[in-house]
Amino acid sequence: MLDLDALMTKVKNEFKVCDRCKGSHLATLIPRLKELDDQAEIKVGCHSYCGPGRDAPFAFVNNKPVLGTNEDDLIKKIKDVLDA
Q1: On the chain, which terminus has fewer CB atoms closer than 10 Å, C or N?
Q2: Which residues have a Cβ under 8 Å from the Cβ of 41 and sit 6 or more positions away?
């Protein structure tokens, strides 16, 4: 029999951030993402979100784009996504 609870506990969160967009400052954002979930996989690279990412910090959280007005706002929104 398939144990759904066991499967759900094995799924890691995934954060995708861009090292080219000007809206995000990875030196501060990545440590804050690790504080939210130190087991999450963090992928750094272009994720073709250049338009919004030019002006505002963003991250993809489990493939869902999350955009903030500033880094604090982004972290708050990411927490909301993780808690949902």
Answers
A1: N
A2: 12, 13, 14, 15
